[in-house]
Amino acid sequence: MQKLKYLLDESEIPTHWYNVVADLPNPPAPTLGPDGNPISPDALSAIFPDDIIEQEVSSKRWIDIPAPIRQAYALYRPSPLYRARRLEELLGTPARIYYKYEGVSPTGSHKSNSALAQAYFNKKAGIKKVTTETGAGQWGSAIAHAGSYFGLKVKVYMVKVSYEQKPFRKSLMHTWGAEVIPSPSDQTAAGRQILDQDPKSPGSLGIAISEAVEEAAQNADTSYTLGSVLNHVLLHQSVIGLEAKKQFALAGDFPNAIYAPCGGGSNFGGVTFPFLEDKLEGKDLRLVAVEPTSCPTLTKGAYAYDFGDTAGLTPLMLMYTLGHDFVPPSIHAGGLRYHGDSPLVSQLHHEGLVEARAVGNVSTFEAGVAFAKAEGIVPAPESCHAIRALIDDAIECKSSKEPQCLFMNLSGHGHFDMAAYDLHFSGQLQNHHLPQAEIDKALANLPKT
Ligand SMILES: *Cc1c(COP(=O)(O)O)cnc(C)c1O
User: Fold this and answer.
1) How much is the pLDDT for 442?
2) In this structure, how many other beta carbons lie within 10 angstroms of the beta carbon of residue 283?
3) pLDDT average, residue stretch 414-427
4) How much distance in Å is there from the Cα of 411 to the middle of ligand 1?
5) Strand (E) positions, 221-280?
6) Would the pLDDT of 268 be above 80?
7) Which residues does 387 contact at the CB level (< 8 Å), separation at least 6?
8) Cα 38 to Cα 21, 98, 309, distances in angstroms
9) Residue 261: which of 357, 340, 166 has the closest Cα?
10) How confident is the model at residue 337 (pLDDT cuts 50, 70, 90)?
C-alpha cells in the first residue's frame, strides 16, 4: 500500500504557539491611533482582554498554549497531512503534492484554532459575551462553537448578502446558541449610517466589523473577537505549520513551495510562518499567498496605513489594502472578500519573502472540482484558490521535469458552499478582474497619515 496520511498522536499537539515577530528581518510597523501616533496597548482594552492584547504586541518567539485550549484542540488536532497521490496521477506531474486538512475541525475550517483560544482568554478574563463579524460564515460558526464550549454568549454580525445566500451557516451558528444579525443592521450607529446612505447595502466585512466593535466598546462585559488579520490570530494559527513540520519529518520530505488561500492572512500565516526560518536559512522554499482577481489585495492594493473597518473605528494598520470602503462585487462567489490583509503577511510580501498570486473565479472552482474528483474532499471555495495555484505549478513541473515538493493548506471543506458550486456548474460564474479605475477610486479614500 502507498502511504497517504501522516498522522501525529494527540500528545503532539503543539505546547506553544510560534510568534513570527521574533524572527522578522525588520520590526513590525506600529499601529496608529486617530491622531497619527502609535497607540498604546491599553487603548485596545475596551474591546480585548489583557492576554489577547499581550499576544497582539508580543515579540516573544514562543507563547504557551494553556492546557484547556490544548484539550479543546484535541477535539480535532493534530490534523492530518495527506499526500495527494491521486491528484499527482490525474495531473501526470512529477511533483510530490501534500495537503494539510483543516476541515476536520467541528466547524469545518482552520478558524476554530483561533476561536477556541479567543473564547478561552475572554472567559478567563470574566467576559460574558463576545461580538464578531462573519462573511461567508466560517468564522461566525467557529466562534459560536467556541463560545458554547467555554460558556460565553456570542453575537455575530453577518454580511447581509451571505446571510441571505448561506442560510445553513446561520442554522449552524444557531445550533451552538449564537445570535446572528444581518449587517448592516439598525442595532448600531455604524449600521444605521450605512443604511441611511444605501438601504439596499449588501454589507461587507468592513461594515460588520464596525458594528461588532461598536457594541463591544460600549459594553464592559462584552469583548470583540475577529477571525483573521491581527497578530494574535495568526499566532494561534501557527499550530498548522508547527504540526506540518513534524509531519514532513515523518514523510522524509520537505516543501519547495507552500500555498494557502489568503483573505485576512490567518491560515496563510499559520501554515507558512513556522517555515520562514527555513527560508531565511536559504532553503529553496516559496511561500505563495493566493487571492481572488476580484478582491486582489496583495497583488493590486496599496501598501499603506488604513482602517480595518469601514466606519474607521479601528486603529490604522500598515498593510496592503484596497481601501476601507471597498465593497467586493456581488458576482464573486469564492470568499476572501476582506479589503485589507494581515500587517505581518503584508510586511513579508513587501519585503519580498512572500509571493502573492491572484486567480479567477471560474478557474478556481475548476481546480476545486478536479481536487474533489481526485482526493474525495470537496474543498471550501476559499481553499480552491490555493489548489488552483498549486495545480498550475504542478503542471509547470511537467514541462520543466522538475520533481518539486508542493504543499498546500486545505483550509476547510465546502459542504456549506454547494450553492456556489451550483453557480459554477450552471455556468453563472465569470472570471472577474477588478478594474483599475475601481481600485483607484477606493484607494482615493485612504486616510492621510
Ligand atoms: C476564512 C477562511 C479563509 C480565509 O481567511 P484567512 O484569514 O485568510 O485564512 C480561507 N479558507 C477558509 C476555509 C476560511 O474559512
Assistant:
1) 85
2) 12
3) 94
4) 6
5) 222-224, 257-261
6) yes
7) 259, 364, 367, 368, 370, 371, 379, 408, 410
8) 17, 42, 18
9) 357
10) confident
Q: How far is the CA of 36 from the centre of ligand 1 (A)?
A: 30
Answer whether 162 contacts ligand 1 (Cβ < 6 A). no
Does ligand 1 come within 6 angstroms of the Cβ of 55? no
Compute the distance between CA of residue 68 and CA of residue 30 in angstroms, rounded to an integer: 32
C-beta of 361 in contact with ligand 1 (< 6 A) = no
Whether ligand 1 lies within 6 angstroms of the CB of 345 is answered as no
Contact 49, 121 (CB under 8 A): yes
Q: What does the pLDDT read at residue 401?
A: 82
What domains, with CATH codes, occur in the chain?
Answer: 68-108+231-443 (3.40.50.1100)
Helix, strand, coil % in the chain, rounded to nearest 5: 45, 20, 40
Task: Please write the tens of the pLDDT for every residue from 121-154.
Answer: 999 999 999 999 998 899 999 999 999 999 999 9
**Cis amide prior to 274 (ω within 30 degrees):** no
At what angle are helices 189-197 and 205-218 packed, to 10 degrees? Answer: 150
What φ, ψ does residue 23 adopt, rounded to 5°? -115, 10
Amino acid at 161: V
- Please indicate whether residue 256, judged by its CB atom, sits closer than 6 Å to ligand 1: no
According to DSSP, the residues that pair with 320 across neighbouring strands are 303
CA distances from 231 to 7, 91, 270, 436, 447 (A): 28, 37, 11, 30, 22
Q: List C-alpha distances in Å: 33 to 36, 145, 300, 318.
A: 5, 33, 26, 12
In sequence order, the 6+-apart residues with CB closer than 8 A to the CB of 422 are none
Q: How far apart are CA 302 and CA 304, in angstroms?
A: 6
Q: Which residue has the cell 483599475?
A: 436
Which of 164, 118, 160, 156 has its CA nearest to residue 138? 156
Grid cell of 265 as nine digits: 492572512
Question: Rounded CA gap, 183 and 157, in Å?
Answer: 6
**Burial 29-55, CB ≥16 within 10 A → b, else e:** bbbbeeeeeebeeeebeebbbebbbeb
For residue 196, the CA-to-ligand 1 centroid distance in Å is 31
Residue bearing cell 467576559: 127
Stretch 176-204: mean pLDDT, rounded? 96
Q: Contact at 8 Å (CB) between 295 and 315?
A: no
